[in-house]
Design a protein that fits this description.
globular, mainly alpha
Length: 308
């Protein structure tokens, strides 16, 4: 009974966190680590909150022009629909993708386990090449190549400073994430003038599942959970290269699949490969750890949030 209360509390907290611009689940996860909470009920709370926030994150990114790190690529497409009075359809497409991503993610856990256990050495070898390819794709997608080059140099320098220097701050990671994700998003929104036209409130309860995009989105989530330094936005960029043309709603569906399945895969990546790729996985690794029963329990939490 106590576990259900923590899951429901996490669900409510996820709604609030998703609607608050600039508040990212990774920041909250790092805060949990700093508090050194050893009770697994708090992990249930954090897991429920993290997945719930993934759904509600698309509301501010669509209506308020304040993106989170996971929705940066969806801002332009969703804003196109918002300007046409179809913001509710954009949000629905994104959330629908999140729903499908959770289910496919859980179904593909055995395949991920085989992939991680059997090909661990190969993954280590191909990671640098994949990250270089992603960086090149992002650079050539950038319209202003000079700005793109400056961003690469600055981010590379920041990465070297953080990884190579012995930072004394106890919450250095929390400070870094807050600056890169939270403060930057809020400052960007303050300098952006937005206009919200009259919206058409229309919900489609019966939608066809874009099978190909659902599979590519879930595979993109698997990449995010397996490969370091690869975010959901990067996976969306890679997945988009396999489609010559894609409707805006379908693309938002694809991003939703990536975001939610990445959360599911990150937990199984921690369990099978002892690797942390998300703030949630870091919080679990640094506090309670994860045994078989707890791993199964977390997947039931994901299903419970899915039905909520």
């Amino acid at each position: 009974m106590l576990e259900i209360i923590f899951v429901l509390a996490g669900f409510c907290a996820g709604i609030i966190a998703g609607l608050l611009p600039g508040l990212h689940s990774n920041s909250i996860a790092v805060l949990f680590v700093s508090l050194n909470l050893k009770d697994f009920n708090f992990i249930l709370f954090l897991s429920s909150m993290t997945l719930t926030q993934t759904f509600f994150d698309y509301i501010p990114s669509t209506l308020l022009s304040i993106p989170s790190s996971n929705t940066l690529l969806s801002v332009l497409p969703s804003h196109k629909m918002t300007l046409n009075g179809k913001a509710f359809e954009a949000i629905q497409a994104s959330c629908y993708g999140c729903l499908i991503g959770v289910i496919i993610g859980i179904l593909l856990i055995p395949a991920q386990a085989f992939f991680v256990i059997q090909l661990a050495d190969l993954i280590k070898l191909i990671i640098p090449g994949i990250l270089i390819i992603v960086l090149m794709l992002m650079f050539f997608e950038e319209k202003n190549k000079v700005h793109g080059l400056i961003a690469i140099v600055l981010c590379s320098a920041l990465g070297l400073i953080v990884l190579k220097q012995n930072l004394q701050a106890d919450n250095a990671l929390f400070i870094l994430i807050s600056g890169l994700i939270g403060c930057s998003a809020i400052l960007s929104s303050l300098t952006t003038k937005s206009f919200l036209p009259r919206q058409e409130i229309k919900f489609e309860f019966k939608q066809e599942i874009p099978i190909k995009q659902a599979l590519f989105g879930s595979l993109g989530g698997l990449m995010v959970a397996t490969l370091p330094s690869l975010s959901s936005s990067h996976a969306g960029l890679i997945s988009r290269q396999f489609f010559s043309e894609m409707k805006i709603k379908t693309y938002l569906f694809l991003l939703g699949c990536i975001n939610s399945s990445a959360i599911v895969f990150s937990i199984s990546m921690l369990f099978f490969g002892n690797k942390t790729r998300t703030g949630l996985a870091i919080a679990i690794s640094e506090t309670t750890g994860l045994n078989v029963m707890q791993f199964v329990q977390l997947n039931f939490v994901f299903l419970f949030v899915y039905f909520l």
